[in-house]
Write a structure and sequence with these properties.
Elements (H helix, E strand, L loop, with lengths): L3 H8 L3 H9 L6 H14 L5 H8 L4 E6 L4 H16 L3 E6 L4 H12 L5 E4 L6 H4 L8 E3 L15 H14 L5 E4 L6 H16 L16 H13 L6 E4 L2 H13 L9 E3 L5 H5 L4 E3 L2 H17 L11 E3 L5
Parallel strand pairs: 1-2, 1-3, 3-4, 5-6, 6-7
Antiparallel strand pairs: 8-9
């Protein structure tokens, strides 16, 4: 492996001069610089980036870890990467497919100083395992977590779901079904709590939770459509945990001849582009700013600064499906 000493010997200069040329630091005469650059090219020298990172104590690279790469994740990841780029950082994306070992391999890169910080979008491991890595660099998450070491940019989904349910009630809907995301997610638990409190407040019987958990993919949403089509007690409104699932419901129900919203109202969550394209009523909660807030928190931790976060709130975006 070629070293700086090899370059110095071939160019007839000192190792310190080679270092100044390689790092663009300090004055080096034009002729000397040309000699060094010629030697670098001739010897095909490639700097050892890991060694440089260890010397500098920073890689200028932020990790983004997610169990999946769906529309909702992308809507947060892209703004994160844009702000990181504007701040002089690159980003490395790790999609784990809920593989706990693969997730820890990504976290080990923080431990070995190959990453400066981590934005955890969706997790696979337990918090007590992941919190240990906060000793090696800043970690930020979207999850609702009570932790002294991992800050979160979450917004309480109880408020958003209650706003949605009360809106439907005021519009005259009485048989409301909810489609939920992952069973272990705290946001899901807050949505379930909102639904149960809503039903108690209005003295109505809630739909069971379990059959409508983990509705994450198109085929799962299509099973709900099949259930609806054969059900004798059809809901008059369906609240999906994401715009993507809401879009599947709208498309498939219309193909079966149902009128939206005359037969059944549909509401999504996130206010992604697809909800605008398909005129789906949804809940906006500045999902792009969640990604930027995550980046702001990491940069605050790395630069020891205190940049204010963007305030997040829920807003109902009424369109044609209600």
């Amino acid at each position: 492996m070629t070293t700086i000493q090899d370059i110095a010997k071939l160019a007839g200069v000192s190792s310190a001069t080679v270092s100044r040329v390689m790092n663009s630091s300090g004055y080096v005469g034009k002729e000397t610089r040309i000699k060094v650059e010629k030697a670098v090219k001739e010897l095909r020298y490639t700097p050892n980036r890991n060694a440089q990172y260890l010397r500098k104590g920073a890689t200028k690279n932020l990790g983004i870890i997610s169990t999946q790469f769906n529309d909702t994740a992308i809507a947060r990841i892209n703004p994160f990467m844009e702000l990181a780029h504007e701040s002089g950082y690159t980003s490395t994306l790790f999609i784990t497919k809920s593989d706990r070992k693969r997730e820890l391999e990504a976290f080990d890169m923080l431990k070995s100083k190959q990453l400066d910080g981590i934005f955890l979008v969706y997790r696979a491991n337990e918090w007590d395992v992941l919190e240990e890595y906060a000793h090696y660099g800043p970690i930020v998450t979207l999850h609702n977590i009570d932790s002294a070491t991992i800050p979160s940019v979450f917004i309480d989904h109880y408020d958003g779901y209650m706003k949605t349910l009360e809106y439907l009630w005021n519009e005259g809907y009485r048989n409301i079904l909810n489609l939920y995301s992952t069973a272990y997610g705290l946001n899901t638990k807050r949505r379930i709590q909102a639904y149960q409190d809503f039903c108690r407040a209005h003295d109505i019987t809630p739909h069971p939770v379990e059959p409508f958990l983990d509705i994450l993919r198109t085929e799962q949403a299509e099973k709900i459509v099949s259930w609806y089509h054969t059900s004798s007690d059809k809901p008059d409104a369906i609240v999906a945990h994401s715009d993507t699932i809401a879009a599947v419901m709208v498309s498939r129900l219309k193909s079966l001849g149902y009128r939206i919203p005359e037969d059944v109202a549909i509401i999504g969550f996130d206010n992604l582009e697809i909800s605008d394209f398909m005129n789906i009523t949804t809940i906006d909660y500045a999902i792009d700013e969640q990604g930027k807030n995550a980046c702001r928190l990491l940069l605050n931790g790395l630069k020891k600064e205190s940049v204010d976060l963007y305030p997040l709130e829920f807003k109902l975006i009424k369109r044609e499906t209600t």
